[in-house]
């Protein structure tokens, strides 16, 4: 990759702070090439996202079968789906073709993949002699995945907001979303309002899990109106960046590596318990640590630590 090409590649990323190593080394380079091709032929980011849903759901269906070679094809499809999921965001940044609907669609794409995977694994377990009770851990693990993915994505966007500002993140809040909803009509804007209402509820859930963080965000907006002093930005980045590794752990790569392991040893039921009893404690720790970071900066801002006269 030439120097200019490498620069373009870097610009297609969100931030090195929030990118996982395996993404930087593997998924992002593949996504960048897919995005370049799509930009050349006029394919939109939303079309790429929708295509990823078909590949991800197809992968989940193939995990239903007990034949390892069929499962390996499913693994390859899931890897390709995630490459497309990487490409849609890179394409949106490369072509400046960003939209809230695109962000919502991209956010829920993975939920479609893993819903298919959980259903397929439950049915597979029943074929192998498990009772219908396997649906209990299957559903609980699925719910756990939704919360893990939602909070990891939220904390990443919060980090991007603090280090890049409002324009460099995809951070929304439920009050502003509700204000937009109030301007819409169910009769005239049914589909848009239905999607935005679901997204507002999703955002409300994220906010309810992070009360101290909400207090910090409100304080920052009151004091700085999204124009944060460099000293504050640097301090937040240093203290908050270590938490990004936890957002990566509960996201795609870690869970899929272990999913593939459980499939290879033909013990797919372990995936549900890994989700609940390994990833959920990490989620709880991640939320707790983020709240501690937020409390620290609330105290700092209350004493005007980062006002210009202190810089």
Automatic annotation (TrEMBL):
EC number per UniProt: 2.7.8.-
Sequence intervals crossing the membrane: 37-62, 68-84, 104-126, 132-155
Pfam families assigned to the protein according to its UniProt record, in alphabetical order: CDP-OH_P_transf
Gene Ontology MF term list: transferase activity
Keywords assigned by UniProt, alphabetized: Membrane, Transferase, Transmembrane, Transmembrane helix
Keyword Transmembrane helix belongs to the record: yes
Tree of life domain: Bacteria
Keyword Transmembrane helix: yes
Official protein name in the record: CDP-alcohol phosphatidyltransferase family protein
Organism: Sphingobacterium anhuiense
């Amino acid at each position: 990759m030439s120097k200019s090409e490498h620069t373009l590649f870097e610009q297609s990323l969100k931030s090195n702070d929030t990118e996982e190593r395996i993404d930087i080394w593997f998924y992002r380079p593949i996504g960048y090439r897919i995005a370049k091709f799509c930009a050349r032929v006029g394919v939109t980011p939303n079309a790429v996202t929708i295509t990823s849903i078909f590949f991800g759901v197809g992968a989940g269906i193939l995990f239903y079968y007990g034949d390892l070679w069929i499962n390996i094809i499913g693994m390859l499809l899931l890897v390709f789906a995630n490459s497309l999921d990487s490409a849609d965001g890179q394409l949106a940044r490369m072509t400046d073709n960003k939209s809230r609907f695109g962000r919502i669609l991209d956010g829920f794409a993975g939920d479609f993949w893993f819903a298919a995977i959980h259903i397929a694994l439950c049915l597979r377990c029943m074929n192998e002699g498990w009772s219908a009770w396997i649906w209990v851990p299957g559903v609980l693990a699925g719910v756990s995945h939704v919360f893990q993915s939602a909070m990891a994505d939220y904390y990443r966007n919060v980090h991007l907001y603090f280090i890049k500002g409002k324009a460099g993140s995809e951070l929304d809040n439920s009050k502003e979303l509700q204000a937009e909803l109030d301007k819409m009509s169910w009769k005239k804007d049914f589909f848009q309002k239905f999607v935005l209402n679901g997204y507002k509820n999703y955002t409300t859930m994220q906010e309810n899990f992070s009360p101290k963080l909400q207090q910090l965000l409100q304080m920052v907006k009151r004091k700085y109106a999204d124009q944060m002093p460099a000293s504050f930005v640097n301090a937040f980045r240093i203290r908050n960046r270590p938490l990004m590794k936890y957002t990566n752990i509960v996201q795609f790569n870690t869970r899929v590596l272990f999913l593939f392991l459980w499939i290879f040893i033909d013990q797919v039921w372990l995936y549900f318990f890994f989700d609940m009893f390994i990833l959920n404690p990490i989620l709880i720790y991640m939320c707790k640590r983020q709240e501690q970071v937020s409390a620290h900066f609330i105290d700092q801002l209350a004493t005007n630590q980062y006002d210009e006269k202190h810089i």
